[in-house]
């Protein structure tokens, strides 16, 4: 798959809350966590994370965790920038976006 197709799937440059929520969910699903498990990893209440994901408004603790632990940068979550992700992460997160659309 070429970069243009990956950017289309990731909705590159779409910073709407719907697009952010979609990418945030794909990142979580790529890691094989449900929302409760992911919230526990983040050390935040489930209701806090659920609200962040469903509203497309991730907190800094979410963005920080994804980058430090899984190399998923804030530019991907917020703007759909795929090209900055490591190749293996690109492939896995694009697959998660496609699978959970």
What would your notes on this structure say?
The chain has 101 residues and is mostly helical. The chain has one domain (3-99). 69% of the residues lie in helices and 0% in strands. It contains seven helices and no strands. The protein is globular. The mean pLDDT is 97. Residues 24-51 form the HTH cro/C1-type domain. This is HTH cro/C1-type domain-containing protein. It comes from Gemmobacter nanjingensis.
Number of strands: 0
| Helix-and-strand structural type | mainly alpha
What's the order of the H and E elements? HHHHHHH
| Helix run count | 7
List keywords for this structure.
globular, 101 residues, mainly alpha
Q: What would you say about this model in short?
A:
The chain is mainly α and 101 residues long. The chain has helices at 3-10, 17-30, 35-42, 46-55, 60-70, 74-79, 87-99.
Secondary-structure map with pairings?
Blueprint: H1 3-10, H2 17-30, H3 35-42, H4 46-55, H5 60-70, H6 74-79, H7 87-99
Helix pairs in contact: 2-4, 2-7, 3-4
